[in-house]
Every structure is written in structure tokens, then in C-alpha cells.
Specification:
Shape: globular
Structural class: alpha+beta
Radius of gyration: 17 Å
Strand content: 25-35%
Order of helices and strands: EHEHEEEEEHEHEHEEEHEE
Strand order of the largest sheet: 3-4-2-1-14-13
Oligomer: single chain
Largest sheet: 6 strands, mixed
């Protein structure tokens, strides 16, 4: 079973690119973030032509999350409970014998902006949500764009980035509280010494210079860890494909037994 997460940075703008990836990688379930579309204007037909059904929690022009799945998903949650005013940022559902939540976590903008405290509060609500999901006893996986570098190794700035947005003690603390629930960063667990990234700015040749951040994560309970065969940051799909421009995020996927 192949489960993926991908901040697509506008699904309508990138639908032809997404189709190339789906046909190449054949994921069973994908959680998309930053779709920038409502349910009404989400390009569902393009997915259906490839054998995927879609479930959308969208928002006009901003945010938005969605599932594309080869089999039925029983959607159990749309929006993070208690934080709906912060936008369409979470969708969760049962897929076979596991529960998958897809999240687009707030950016925070900068340390002086009101959105920074909102980001921390949002993660507090996410922790409560995850605790409830874990208590249900199903294998649980939560994937998405977390907008936090968990450690200095997850940023091209290294320790030089400490204290900057995405790299603060406060942000790392709210992420650690998710780990404390029993969630494991599947990529870091598989590759503890990797310096791979998942996001690169479009500007200043950041991708070519590998000036990136690893902010797109798949976290799983112990049952997911035990089933993990491989975890991939799909860097080839941050490059142009057939002349089409990629998202600034690479897809990340895990292959489960």
C-alpha cells in the first residue's frame, strides 16, 4: 500500500502534472494540501479517469485539502475541531485498516505576526485531535505540510536558522508534543542521517543549489512504523515534467506492508 502527501500549490494549475505523477507512482491514497479550490471547482474528473475517487475540503483561492484514493475512504473529519476559522486545513478518514489525516498546517508568516501565535494554538488543537485518533486503536498516519523544520538537519540553514520562522523553539516544541503521543517521523526513522529536503523556493535557484527545507512529513503510530518498507521524498517530481512546472514541494510517500 502506497500512501502519499503532497502540497500541490494549486491543483487546477497543476492537474496535468499531477496526472503524470499518479500514472508513474500509482499511489493508493494521496493527501493533497494547498489545493486552492472548492469542491465545486476541484478537477475531480481528471482523477476519476485514472481510477481515483476524490474527497475535498476546499476553500476559494487559499488553503484546502483533499484525498485521492483508489478505494473507498470513509471520511471522518473535515476541518480541525475548534479551529475552523483558520481555514480548510484538515481532512481525515478510514482507508482499509488504517486512519489517515491530511493536514496543511499554518505558516505563521513571521515571529511578530499574529499568525505565529495562531500557528502554535492550531498545533495545540492538532495534538488533541491526534490523541483522540490514536485512542481509537487503528493504525494512524498523519501527513502534510507542517511548516516546521523539526531539527537543524531539516534545513539548509542548519543551526544557523535556529530562531527564525519554521526553526523556533516554540514551533519545534509543538511538533515534539505530537511525537510524545507516540507518533514517529517515518522518513527520519528510516533515514536518521539524511539531509534530504521536500521544499525549495522558486527563487534564486534554490532547487538547483539544494537550498531547501524538510517540512512535508508523514507521521505514524507504531503499527505504521512496523509496516513501513520504504519512505521516499520524490525529488524528481520537484523538477519540470514534459515542460510542466512543478509545485515548490516534492511529494512524499510511504510503502506499507
Amino acid at each position: 500500500m502506497r500512501i502519499a502527501t503532497w502540497n500541490i500549490n494549486g491543483v487546477r494549475a497543476r492537474i496535468d502534472y499531477v496526472k503524470i505523477w499518479l500514472e508513474s507512482r500509482q499511489p493508493d491514497l494521496v493527501g493533497f494540501q494547498e489545493i486552492k479550490a472548492t469542491e465545486e471547482n476541484f478537477p475531480a474528473e481528471a482523477f476519476e479517469e485514472l481510477g481515483y475517487q476524490v474527497h475535498v475540503h476546499g476553500q476559494k483561492s487559499w488553503n484546502g485539502v483533499a484525498f485521492a484514493a483508489k478505494a473507498d475512504v470513509d471520511v471522518t473529519q473535515l476541518g480541525l475541531p475548534g479551529r475552523e476559522e483558520n481555514g480548510a486545513r484538515l481532512i481525515a478518514g478510514d482507508f482499509g485498516d488504517l486512519n489517515y489525516a491530511c493536514v496543511y498546517c499554518p505558516n505563521g508568516k513571521n515571529l511578530e505576526h499574529a499568525d505565529f501565535q495562531m500557528k502554535l494554538d492550531w498545533f495545540g488543537a492538532l495534538r488533541d485531535f491526534c490523541e483522540t485518533q490514536i485512542s481509537n486503536g487503528k493504525d494512524f498516519i498523519i501527513g502534510g505540510d507542517y511548516n516546521i523544520c523539526a531539527t537543524a538537519a531539516d534545513s539548509h540553514h542548519g543551526e544557523g536558522g535556529d530562531g527564525e520562522i519554521f526553526h523556533t523553539v516554540e514551533e519545534r516544541d509543538v511538533l515534539t508534543k505530537l511525537f510524545d503521543l507516540g507518533l514517529t517521523d517515518l522518513f527520519r526513522n528510516k533515514y536518521p542521517d539524511s539531509d534530504a529536503f521536500s521544499w525549495w523556493d522558486y527563487r534564486a535557484g534554490a532547487f538547483q543549489r539544494n537550498h531547501g527545507l524538510r517540512i512535508d512529513l508523514l507521521l505514524g503510530t507504531q503499527g505504521i512504523v512496523d509496516r513501513t518498507n520504504e519512505v521516499v521524498i520524490d525529488r524528481d517530481f520537484r523538477k519540470k515534467q514534459e515542460g510542466l512546472t512543478a509545485s515548490d514541494h516534492a511529494p512524499v510517500y510511504v510503502d506499507l506492508e
